[in-house]
Amino acid sequence: MGSAILNYYFPVAKGYAVIPGEHRGDNSIAEFNILRIQRRFPGDRSVVEHTTVKATQSADWLISSSEQLQDALWSTLPECGRCWVIIILGPTFRFYEYHLHRPKNKRVIPWGPPNQQQQNSFHVRHDCITIDWMLRHMAQNDAPPVR
What we know:
Blueprint: H1 2-9, E1 16-23, E2 26-38, E3 46-56, H2 66-73, E4 82-89, E5 92-99, E6 108-110, E7 121-123, H3 128-140
Parallel strand pairs: 3-4
Antiparallel strand pairs: 1-2, 2-3, 4-5, 5-6, 5-7
């Protein structure tokens, strides 16, 4: 399900590539990196890390703090500065921002829509309108705002 949703919101026709991977050898966790091809001048095809995604059915991987989340994501977070992070836990999407230049334990920030900024976890069936807004916002913005 996660791959289909990501490919819908981040299509190749708009310069995105959804790259599947494996989370450090753990078969129960799917990993995706969403890359965006940017052109600064004719013929240029720079690749920018746009979003890091982890997907699993297992609640064993449930992360309770942003520091644990940062440690769990360390191998795939970009060193370019800022990107989006999505954790798909069964039918639930959790949204975060990643900021490399913030203090180590404050780099991963929960992210929600403007009318629900305190909430970053949404059920795919019950909160589909919110998830749609979040994914469209991410597709239209290359990185989270500077904080």
